[in-house]
Specification:
23 helices, globular, Rossmann fold, alpha/beta, Luciferase, domain 3
Length: 656
């Protein structure tokens, strides 16, 4: 009889975990996908059969050990399986962002030297065909959705189902070879290569080994007690490290079910239908949820609105304490229980969060007001701090120690230290192997002892041992009077307001801060409709005097909040403008994970920043934009620049 310890020791690759699950959880549901409004399911045993057929089909196409296989598309079980099938064939999966433009894809495809590309649909195939004129390494294209593909040249193009069928038909030729290649995989073999978002330059290929993924998945699953009966919704980009850890690493380690929504448009509906027990979302998702709640409440009757405000005020006061099982009076518990029946329960059900045991947010800092809102409902929302280079986890918040202003304590197996300049360093079993074809960047990021520089500034709290992240180290600076400048802190406070989608704050080395603001078209459009304000475009609505006045109120309320923080009160926004266009990844202003490219925005809108500091009341500007079909164009606008009231007392306090 083989001991459990020996069995676990043998699990040194994702395909090995799949083989274990196909035996241990054979009839348990491993994947669900919604298509044409109907959920389809696969057990772990069926997934193993699908992956094995795919791997044999890849061998029939000529896939070799060490080949790089690009995967491009939305979250679909077959695309997740293609990553595991590539590993089973001894190759390396490289997921790409499906919304990336062709030229962005070209860089990654060329850089990794992908011989094979697995595409989700015709749109992705077209992008790959477009870049093949310059990217010469691509030899075979495989596609999942065959709609629109009938008239294409299939000389070096195959439907994924046909690849699997060929693998099954040739199993006597390929099965032994797949078994051999899978058995060869060790902890030190590459599991996946994921490209960074490229906030400051070209994306870097982060090489992550089986050790990185499996050890991190094991430690993080044990930390939160993840189990085979858990359910997750896989809707975030497959090219992002978080999705790989949650939907492959942890899913294969714990054996839980991965649910793929039908589309981005149906994600919220599908979330309600699945009712996940384990949920991850970046701050923008929670911001969107809160915006939708506030919009619905604005349309509610006066009685419902009064009921909502009354019980939410109570929830904010006692909800987090009840969630953490801290002392709360019987009367407060009774009122909260009634609120759960009347308000919190129906609200959680509407959002699809009723069954949540553990929820996380990360990627960037979340506004404390947004974070506290969800915890007050009884949702166990926590923060983690991580990076692609760490296989996600650096710090996590243990149950009962959750706060909006920290990112928790070092994750199991992770060491964290703060350098003299305030930069955060870590090392762990999850630390990446290297940057692909970039020894110089590898050496500058990871030292000989395995310590990785995060690029973030932070400090450990005395007494609690919790880490607080201030901002990106390169973004933290000083105002002209010597007070601390931390733009993300201000931006997150501004984005708490449902009407504000994005904010970018400037002020490093200056005597005061100024801000660009993007309105949320859904929230402000709903407000405009209720107030009988007509508009024909985003630009017209963003420049409406009543919208500007409303945003000014939000800015001034934010300033009042910032003034209470003696360390950061110098970051109050003195002047602002509402941009005439949404910041867009297609225009290079955001990364594909929706992070602000601050330097690019500073260069692109330098005239607007200068105008804010010069005291002008308006400015004419022309901006190049990219349309959905890839065409370039220009939009023009005359923007109004506004002054915002600041709390002078707080400024003086910070200067002292």
């Amino acid at each position: 009889m083989v001991s459990s310890t020996a069995t676990e020791t043998a699990l040194q690759s994702v395909p090995a975990l799949l083989a274990r699950n196909a035996t241990r959880y054979a009839s348990a549901t491993a994947y669900r996908e919604k298509e044409f409004g109907i959920w389809q399911s696969w057990t772990w045993k069926q997934v193993e059969e699908e992956v094995r057929a795919m791997a044999m089909g890849f061998l029939a196409l000529g896939m070799n050990r060490g080949d790089y296989v690009a995967i491009i598309g939305r979250n679909r079980p077959a695309l997740y399986w293609s990553m595991v099938a590539a590993q089973s064939a001894g190759a390396v999966p490289v997921p790409l962002y499906q919304d990336a433009a062709a030229d962005e894809m070209a860089y990654v495809l060329e850089h990794c030297g992908a011989r094979f590309v697995v595409c989700g649909d015709q749109e992705q195939v077209d992008k790959v065909l477009e870049v093949q004129e310059t990217v010469k390494c691509i030899e075979e294209i495989v596609y999942l959705d065959k709609r629109g593909m009938r008239k294409y040249d299939h000389t070096h193009m195959n439907w994924l189902m046909d690849v699997q069928a060929e693998g099954r038909a040739g199993h006597q030729r390929f099965e032994a070879e797949v078994t051999k290649r899978t058995a060869e995989l060790t902890y030190d073999h590459t599991c996946v290569m994921l490209y960074t978002s490229g906030t400051t330059g070209k994306p870097k290929g982060v090489v992550l080994s089986n050790r990185n993924i499996i050890e991190t998945s094991k430690a993080s699953a044990e930390f939160d007690g993840l189990r085979q009966s858990d359910e997750i919704l896989a809707y975030l980009p497959m090219a992002w490290v978080g999705d790989f850890i949650f939907a492959i690493g942890q899913a294969y380690w714990a054996g839980f079910c991965v649910n793929c929504p039908e589309s981005d448009a149906t994600m919220m509906t599908d979330l309600r239908e699945i009712g996940p027990t384990y949920f991850f979302a970046p701050p923008r998702i929670f911001e969107t949820m809160l915006t939708q709640v506030m919009i619905r409440m604005e349309d509610a009757s006066k009685l419902k609105l009064r009921l909502f405000k009354n019980y939410m005020e109570h929830a904010r006061r006692v909800g987090p304490a009840i969630l953490d099982d801290k002392p709360v009076s019987a009367a407060d518990r009774a009122k909260y229980a009634l609120g759960n029946v009347l308000v919190y329960g129906p609200l959680k059900n509407t959002l699809g969060l009723s069954q949540i045991r553990v929820a996380y947010t990360a990627g960037e800092a979340i506004g404390p007001e947004i974070f506290d809102f969800f915890r007050s409902l009884g949702i166990n929302l926590k923060q983690l701090y991580g990076q692609t280079e760490a296989s996600v986890f650096i710090t996590q918040q243990p149950d009962g120690e959750v706060r909006s202003d920290t990112v928790g304590v070092p994750s199991p197996g992770v060491e964290v230290k703060i350098a003299d300049n305030g930069e955060v360093f870590y090392r762990s079993p999850g630390v990446f192997v290297s940057y692909y074809k970039n020894a110089e960047s590898t050496a500058s990021t990871k030292d000989a002892e395995g310590w990785v520089a995060t690029g973030d500034a932070g400090f450990f709290e005395e007494g609690t041992g919790h880490l607080r992240i201030i901002d990106r180290a390169k973004d933290v600076g000083k105002m002209a009077d010597g007070s601390l400048f931390a733009p993300k802190y201000v931006e997150n406070k501004l984005k708490f307001y449902p009407n504000i989608l994005e904010a970018v704050v400037f002020g490093n080395g200056r005597d005061r801060c100024v801000a660009f603001i993007n309105i949320d078209l859904t929230a402000v459009g709903n407000w405009a409709e209720r107030n009988n304000i007509a508009y024909s475009s985003y630009q017209e609505l963003a420049g409406h005097p009543k919208v500007l006045a409303m945003i000014q109120e939000h800015v001034e309320e934010t300033n009042a909040s910032i003034a209470e923080d003696t360390m950061l009160s110098g970051c109050q926004v003195h002047r602002f403008l509402v941009l005439h266009k949404e910041l867009d990844a297609d225009d290079g202003e955001l990364t594909r994970t929706r992070k602000v490219r601050r330097r690019i925005i500073e260069e692109k809108f330098a005239d607007l920043i200068d105008a804010l500091y010069s005291g002008k009341s308006e400015i004419y500007t022309e901006t190049e934009v990219t349309y959905e079909d890839g065409r370039k164009g220009k939009i023009t606008a005359t923007l109004e620049l506004r002054d915002a009231k600041v709390r002078q007392a707080a400024r003086k306090m910070a200067a002292e």
